[in-house]
Amino acid sequence: GDPESSILVSKIPSRQQTKRVTITTRSEYGNYRESPLATSSYREDIPSPLPSTRPASAMESPTSLHTLGLGPEVHPNDLESNLRRLKPIQVISAYLELMDHVKRMERQADLREELLRRNQKQIEAKDKIIKERDMLVRKMERDLERIDEEPESVSLAPSDASTIGAVRCRFFSSGCPYRLPSMEFHEDRECKFRPTRCPSLTCPIKPPFAKLLEHVQDDHNGSKKGRDRICRNNSNQLVSSYVNIDKEPVFYKTTRMTWVANELICDSFHFFLECMRVPPDWHLWVYIIGSEKDAEKYQATIQLFREDEYGQVADLGYSAQRSYTGQVISIHRSKEEIAEFSLGFMVHDKQIRSLCGTISNAEEQLFGYEVSVYRK
Ligand SMILES: [Zn+2]
Ligand SMILES: [Zn+2]
Predict the structure, then answer these.
(1) Ligand 2 geometric centre to CA of 220 (Å)
(2) Are both 181 and 216 inside the same structural domain?
(3) Which of 137, 164, 223, 248 is the one with CA 20 to 30 A from 232?
(4) Is the domain of 236 the same as that of 300?
(5) 93 and 185 share a domain?
């Protein structure tokens, strides 16, 4: 639940001038408990603002309002007749005493206000301490959750797991089992602002992971010179085909070639179908804008066929087709790594050639494809 704290403060100081401030915090489970640390009882050297008896001097004064029959307990009807009976000197004296009385009451009001202010300040200070404590507790809870998740989220080779992946608690030898991710690990594997790669295989920019889609939108919408367009789609499935617009036929080329990335969306994740030829092999794979852990949850199916046979009815079928189903690949993996370890769909020139069409209008029709991404 939402942690709340409420403060109960006892009334304004009583006559014996001791104050007791009790702070009650609500525990996580909703029941109230009194925190022993937050309770204090102390004396203060502030004169009581509410004396129960008047100062002795006022009582003994010969011109006391009481003596003159003008005290507060005199009935208003008697007040006027009493005043008429007074000598002028007595009226002046009564007036002076009245002024004195007013001043005393003003001082008392000031004192009371001062006390209230002090009380308020103490409440605020205690409130701050409670809030800080709550924040600390929440932070510790989050840290604990993270430590609990750690063994799952770290997907490292067994050999580096103990060295790069985590730092042991320094009380390990006494039996503490906790391992914390190191800063190096955070910067290398977790940080949402570490540089990542762009889904455009020809793009040299390394945008921060958290700003990758912004980069795709701004730099790869087809209007920026020297930047490939990235085809944006709003579906988890796509049918299209690749063409070669180079003068040289694709199978004569001896250098690496890449094609435009195609976006797919599934749940709230963005995926990109990639195609690269490293003669004589072709590599097709689906990138996920996400971590290795996110990648483990999604699969892609890629089907290759002759473009001119797309949509043929079942009995005619395709003359040839190849398909692949496998895990999507985190954007943090490089295309070199993907080609080297054949992490995606790898097909040889000899297998692709029969799926390709003819060259017409300076455009070479390559194979058609259908790709879909879905949760495992
Ligand atoms: Zn960071
Ligand atoms: Zn880019």
Answers:
(1) 6
(2) no
(3) 248
(4) yes
(5) no
Total number of domains constituting the chain: 3
> Are the CB atoms for 39 and 23 separated by under 8 Å?
yes
pLDDT digits (tens, 9 = 90+) for 90-141: 888 888 888 998 999 999 999 999 999 999 999 999 999 999 999 999 888 8
Write b or e for each residue in 8-39: b if 16 or more Cβ atoms lie within 10 A of its Cβ, otherwise e.
eeeeebeeeeebebebebeeeeeeeeeeeebe
Percent of all residues in the chain with a pLDDT value above 70, rounded to a whole number? 76
Q: Are residues 14 and 141 in the same domain?
A: yes
Residues 332, 228, single domain; the answer is yes
Question: What's the 192 CA to ligand 1 centre distance in angstroms?
Answer: 6
Mean pLDDT, rounded, for 161-173:
67
- 309 located within any domain: yes
**ipTM of this model?**
0.93
Whether 168 maps to a domain, the answer reads yes
Q: pLDDT tens digit string along 194-225?
A: 899 999 999 999 999 999 999 999 999 999 98
CA of 296 to the centre of ligand 1 (A): 23
Which ligand is closest to the CA of 210, given by its number? 1
Kindly state whether residue 153 falls inside one of the protein's structural domains. no
Q: How far is the CA of 194 from the centre of ligand 1 (A)?
A: 7
Find, among 279, 278, 261, the residue nearest to 270 by Cα: 261
